[in-house]
DNA sequence: TTGAAAGCGCTAACAT
DNA sequence: ATGTTAGCGCTTTCAA
């Protein structure tokens, strides 16, 4: 059973194939009479255009590639939501690939997206393999790196200083008078590493020793992991006065574990998270955090890509720093 | 600047285009000498094959369409993770589209996927517009509907009885001796509606009156929403003895709000959630829930799709019921 | 093992 | 406003 093609529709409607093509893409350029006949034929035959053929013929794909490390973390869901909202409305397809925090998988994703001839690539993170950088730079398409600030952006870079944010969270705890302040994370991907750098910087400046609570094998941030890591620390008899968690989920898990063990937050221990996820404000006690701008990042990235695609002016490396914000709440109140 | 094509590579390597194509797709069919020359030329030119052309010429896309209602809920992230794991390993591209819980957007997604000539469609849910059903049925490709059981599956259906699960959760509360049992949800998409049906069935059988806590405008399940809805109820002075929440996030939000208000769980109120998300076991108190099998659903759907694509036997409507399980924990302990 | 010819299904460019 | 012609960049089929 052959698939229905444009020609079949044209034959049935008694017009030329290009007229059918026009009815589908720019109906206003066709007289109402023909348009109706074509529409009827399309419907009768259940015709669905072959996008691969269209892309090949027009050499436009109307597709934009997006690479994220994972879908488990809601921050990427929010970011993707914003990207979709802008790009789909503008008639683009968004092709999402996840790299599972691996630079090799990211490189493969880039190759796959370039093979699909996406018109732009939006990629979370600024650390790539040399070949990835080379492919992106040579591809002559808009590239946006997001979430972090890069020392040498490939093209456009929209992010925030993860290190400065980590430093800010740590200083918040230091200012509250704590000395035994721990840094807690499930993995050390580049963003977590930068927050860690910020933590160490703040601790060094204050003349305080580092305290690290890091999962033995990399695990994604979750409430359960926060609970596990805190338990581990507690059972070592090594509970600090304050903890900076790289993610609100970890912080929530740690708080729950405190509660089970009769350790009061913030009376006995202070906890600050990261990202200011939706639940931070309504947690009991409410959770101090660093608010980050996932939605704005996605929206801005998408808008800049559209602008670049419409302008044909070759863009140069540019950087946009989306500020973060410290949100002090009960979990670190003195 | 023209893009590099197969012909460019062929010219540089001094072979015919088809030989280059073979080196890329089935290297074993080409003599080592030529293969090396071609590989060198590919590398030198930075050649990336045009997938649209390949798809058009071969009439195979190696693409599989997946439709989910949202990426905000982690259950879909888990499901997608499993789908990816199986399908990508088998050499397929997974194209994810989200329908934002709208049947019209789902219909558009189906059209878009068919236009891309995906080789199979895996779709969360069993409620579709008549046109969607027609398109899927006529498309002569494997279709898998997931998460729910359908009275009339289009093709393969892998899911669970949401209604029975809702009934089970409710009966658990009834058995514990509660009479004022509320059903709490942020929206009534089809799955939530089915759980609601199960709740009402159980309540009717026990001769108890319904108590509904439903957001005024549809909102996605979140901790913050659970907190809001509980607050609303509490401020109406209308707090029940037990609550069945359609999602663990809602349940966690409700529990946190209880805590803030000095209402003890489970002493003053019992709460059960749904999905048994990762945090349920480590919440304080630990959260009773209904465990659902998102990962298995995705894995099985993907495996069945691969089998169908390899067998060429036309599959008939078939249904697989993945059981759920009641997980009683502290939040409903008596 | 390698290549030549033909065509996948559509659209750009150029008529009329 | 509509049609004709000529590809887009690959792969299939068939031949050598």
UniProtKB/TrEMBL annotation, chains A, B:
PROSITE patterns in UniProt: HTH_LACI_1, HTH_LACI_2
The keyword DNA repair appears for this protein: no
Annotated Pfam families: LacI (PF00356), Peripla_BP_3 (PF13377)
Record SMART domains: HTH_LACI (SM00354)
Keywords from the named record: DNA-binding, Transcription, Transcription regulation
Alphabetical list of CDD domains matching this protein: HTH_LacI, PBP1_GntR
Domain HTH lacI-type: 4-58
Gene3D superfamilies the UniProt entry points to: 3.40.50.2300, lambda repressor-like DNA-binding domains
SUPFAM superfamilies tied to this protein: lambda repressor-like DNA-binding domains, Periplasmic binding protein-like I
GO molecular function list: DNA binding
Membrane-traversing stretches: none
Coiled coil spans: none
Xref: InterPro entries: HTH_LacI (IPR000843), LacI/GalR-like_sensor (IPR046335), Lambda_DNA-bd_dom_sf (IPR010982), Peripla_BP_I (IPR028082)
Name recorded for this polypeptide: LacI family DNA-binding transcriptional regulator
């Amino acid at each position: 059973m052959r698939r229905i093609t444009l020609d079949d529709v044209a034959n049935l409607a008694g017009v030329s194939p290009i007229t059918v093509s026009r009815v589908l893409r720019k109906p206003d350029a066709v007289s109402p009479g023909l348009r109706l006949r074509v529409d009827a034929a399309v419907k009768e035959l259940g015709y669905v255009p072959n996008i691969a053929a269209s892309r090949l013929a027009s050499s436009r794909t109307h597709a934009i590639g997006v690479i994220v490390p994972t879908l488990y973390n809601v921050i990427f869901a929010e970011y993707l939501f914003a990207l979709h909202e802008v790009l789909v409305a503008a008639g683009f397809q968004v092709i999402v690939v996840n790299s599972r925090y691996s630079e090799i998988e990211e490189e493969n994703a880039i190759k796959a997206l370039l093979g699909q001839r996406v018109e732009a690539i939006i990629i979370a993170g600024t650390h790539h393999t040399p070949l990835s950088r080379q492919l992106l730079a040579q591809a002559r398409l808009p590239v946006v790196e997001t979430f972090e600030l890069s020392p040498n952006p490939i093209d456009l870079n929209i992010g925030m200083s993860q290190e400065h944010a980590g430093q800010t969270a740590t200083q918040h705890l230091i200012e509250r008078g704590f000395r035994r302040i721990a840094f807690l994370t499930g993995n050390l991907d580049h963003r977590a590493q930068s927050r860690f750098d910020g933590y160490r910087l703040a601790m060094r400046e204050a003349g305080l020793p580092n305290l690290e609570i890091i999962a033995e094998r990399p695990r994604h941030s979750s409430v359960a992991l926060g609970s596990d890591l805190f338990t581990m620390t507690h059972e070592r008899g090594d509970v600090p006065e304050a903890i900076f968690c790289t993610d609100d989920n970890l912080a929530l898990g740690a708080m729950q574990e405190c509660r089970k063990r009769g350790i009061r937050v913030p009376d006995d221990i202070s906890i600050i998270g990261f990202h200011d996820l939706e639940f931070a404000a309504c947690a009991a006690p409410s959770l101090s955090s660093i608010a980050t701008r996932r939605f704005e990042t996605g929206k801005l990235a998408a808008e800049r890509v559209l602008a670049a695609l419409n302008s044909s002016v070759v863009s140069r490396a540019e950087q946009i720093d989306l500020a973060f914000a410290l949100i002090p709440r009960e979990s670190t109140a003195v």
